[in-house]
Amino acid sequence: MDWAAFSLSLKLGSATLAVLLPISLIAGRTLALQTFRGKGIAEALVALPLVLPPAVLGFYLLVAFGARSPLGRLTTGLIGHPLAFSFAGLLAASVLINIPFGIQPIQRAFEAIPPDIREAAACCGMSRRRAFLAIELPLAWPGILSAAVLTFAHTLGEFGVVLMVGGNIPNETRTLSIAIYDRMQAFDDRAAGLMAATLLLVALATLTITHVLGRRIARRHG
Amino acid sequence: MARVLFLATLLSSGSTVVGFHAMAPAPAPVIAAASDLKFALEEVAARYAAEGHERVELVFGSSGLLSRQIQDGAPFEVFLSADEEFVNQLADAGLARDRGVLYALGRLVLFAPSGSPLVPDPELNGLRALLERGAVTKFAIANPAYAPYGRAAEAVLRKRGLWERLQRSLVLGDNVAQAAQFASTGNAVGGILAHSLVLAPPLRGQGKYVRIPESDHPPLRQRMVLLKRAGPTAEDFYRYLQQTGAREILHRFGFALPGGSGPPEG
Lengths: 222, 266
Prior knowledge:
The structure holds 2 protein chains of 2 kinds. By secondary structure, chain A is mainly alpha-helical. Chain A is built from 11 helices and no strands.
């Protein structure tokens, strides 16, 4: 078991959540409650990482983040290194890949809140902020939680993009998934097996949690 | 566009935090090495640490992949390539301190895992006979597009007139260690691998092998170089690699060693 990789994966998962969850709340609620021009394109963009092959995303990000790109030269000037092969770059990639996992469950949760509930809140003289905090958020929380769980689990599991953008650098970009690949190539099947089992359990727990939450939403509004 | 800008802002704040982390303790230098060195270099690094030196981190991959990563800004301090070409390219691109030193000559073996119908011989006659019988399931080599050992394997197979006929049976490893893994699982009748890998514990005793004559392929002149960002520990490790103790280990893993340790050329 590669504990450095394990803690790096946890760190990447939490950092991704910290960045993506606020964005997802704003974007998910906006997409659920508002109509605007180009909404179709916005929703397609949100879903794109689900359909896009990881190799495509990995390639573009490596080219964009590498030392030879304008962004690479800029970040080298600012922070001393390009984003590629660094934790910061991995975080950026991870946030992008997880956009659908963050936004979509939250959007669905806000969509499931019946409009008359929000109208009633407005009629009662609740400010929009108050209505959001006291009415919408409590109703949407199973969706928010499943977005968080999915994002976190998906971050632990992401492989292709991490390998391409991050390389396989201990303590910096060697996540648990990469460590499995690394150990397998080193003929260390025991360590690879242990880490694979860990991720299997995480995936199973994730699905269980999201299903339970999904049922809860359905029961509430069904 | 707004989203891109927003992300960029978040990213820069994120990386500042990471930057502070990196500043705290001097992290161990990362050494990038060709996959044929997997077990040999791990032993060198273990010995280096045991002798009371600073720790170094090792990252293995095909020389082509590592070279590309260096060009894209990977934070490696020393690069041990399985050939000269990639080191020269990095030197030409201004990413290396100098043109480095030759540290080893790689050797190829034909390997057959236990239970394989292939009986290894230096001229690949056994492989030819199996091909004629249609009994070659899979045959593993490293990817010639970016792995020097794959290139050398291709040269051997071409010289023996087997390259075209073997096409449908080839499985290409990302690097020679992965090729070794493919060859050892029993899914393949064998493969052309690095001598250094079949001498290491995971493969030793897992099959039979013979050395392939060096005259059958362009030499694997393995060159290493200090990269632009190399610090004192990396410099020290680089010197250590040229000293007797490290050279002995490389020799034990089947590498031929160039004459003297010699000063960096060029």
